[in-house]
Structure formats: structure tokens, C-alpha cells
Design a protein that fits this description.
Mean pLDDT: 83
Strand order of the largest sheet: 1-2-3-4-5-7-8-9
Number of domains: 1
Shape: globular
CATH class: Mainly Beta
Structural class: alpha+beta
Number of strands: 9
Helix content: 25-40%
Strand content: 25-35%
Length: 273
Amino acid sequence: MSRTPLLLASCVAGALALSAPAPKAALLSAIDTFNAATAIDGTVPIDFGVKGGELDKKSRAPRNLFPDGFDAVSPAVGSAAKGVMAAVDAISGEMSLAATAADTWKTADSPLTGEWSNIFTTAADATFDAKSDRGAAKVSNVVDAKRGRITNVIKFLDPESKANALRVSLTARAVGPQRLELTFRSVKVTFRKRLFGLFRSVYIPFAPATFLARLFFLFRKMKPVTPFFDLLFIDGELRVQRTGEGNVFIQRRLAAAPSPVARWAWSGPVFGK
């Protein structure tokens, strides 16, 4: 049997492999395509609560916008979102620091430590748009692995917005080589102008909210689900993770090395005690 067809097939396969973009480049390209589509057709309009589309009606967890939410915007946005998710599946199979990243939690040299900026998400609670009542915002994530702390930061961009920033403080623990379980601790809201002419910020502990949530699930004969995320890919620049609700977050490390998460200097009232 002639080896020519086999050699030809091998050469074609090799050429295709060389011409195909690497999974990371393909993912970033897919996000660019998604951003181009939303720049023309808009994104999913999200406001607060269940009625606003932020939370799932049954679980009260952050609503997953993929695929129905994106499909409802336009065929182009829906198709672009599917392209991003396909690229996420592809990069999840690549070797990366994600395989053991959670094992480095509570260490000084964890690859998770740093400040990360959201560049794509399927989570409604992290989706902001200038055309919605929530307004436009930048969403980032500050991780101090050695101290076991995570701070989600939302900075509102509309100068007319009363709120300047929202900071959600969490602690985390590793429950596997790629999984971190989360405990919400507190929320701090800072305002552009003093609230009632008195307070520049408001601090709200999460303990009462946790208690009310447990009561809610008790009467529904359900157990509250502990939030977590699985690391799918991480290197020096990019981090990809999926939450327990199936929401995907893709984050890029900010160039400047962040300082450790500082304790908040309190200048306002404390609610919830």
C-alpha cells in the first residue's frame, strides 16, 4: 500500500494545527468578537433583584445569562457568546496552574494573588450596562491568598450615580486542587456625596443575611448551597473559573502588582448588628 496518502494526510493535519490559534489566543479572540457584537446590539439588560433579571427566581442565586439571555439580545450576540463558551471548554483542557492552584491557597506565592479585571462573564449580578438602571461599572476581583481573602469590587462609572463603589468581602477555603468554597463576610458601599449629608460610606455585615437565608431554605425544606468556584485555567495573565451555578468568569490580571488587601478605615454607620 502506498504511503503517499498517509503522508499527505499527516502534512495537512500538521498544517491545520500550525494555522489554528492556541486556546488562549482563541479565547481572547472570541471575547473580542463578543464585545464587537454587544457594541452594536447591546448586552443583556439587567437590573436589581429577581424582577430585574439579576437573580434566579427559584434559587435566588445569580442568574446565568448563557445561552438564553445572550440569544435574546440578538443572533450575533448569542452566536458570539457560544464562541466564547466553546473557547472556554477548549482552554479548560489545557495544562495550566489551575490543576493545583487551590492547593496553594493560604501561601505567599499563590498564582491566585493579585488584582483581576473581568473581561467576560455569564453572571447577571456582575453584568452592568449604561442603558440599565444599574448603570455602567467596572468589575474586578482582588485576591490575597495568604490571608485567605477575596474582595469583589464594583466601581460605578456614571458620574450621576449616587454610589461610587461597592466592595464585597469574602473568605475562602480550598476543598480540592481546583475548588475554593466562599463565605460572604460584608459589603461596603461608598458614595460620591455624603449620605444624608453625614456618611461617606456604609458597612453591612453579612451575618444577618446568612441567618435569613437559612430561615428561607428551612421553610422550603431545602439546604442552602455553599457558594464555590472551580478554576479552569490560570497563568500569569488570565484566569478562567466556573461557579456552582455554572456561571463563567474570565479575568485578566492588572499589570500593576496590587498591595495586600488592607483593612477598611471605617467612616460610617454599621448596620445589621
